[in-house]
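Weekly puzzle thread! Below is a chain. First person to post its structure in token form gets bragging rights.
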Amino acid sequence: MLPRLEAIINERQHDGSDAALERRIDDTRQLVTVMKFCLDKDVEIIFG
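Winning reply:
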């Protein structure tokens, strides 16, 4: 899941013209950060 989220972030064009898309990309970046932190600390992530 993490590699796919990172790929989505990297392949999107960021021109700032679509505020909703920019917010979603920002949210995805934050999710990736949290997921990496949890993986580093060996914390189980439960999506439900």
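Puzzle host: Confirmed. Bonus trivia for everyone else. The chain is about 65% helix and 0% strand.
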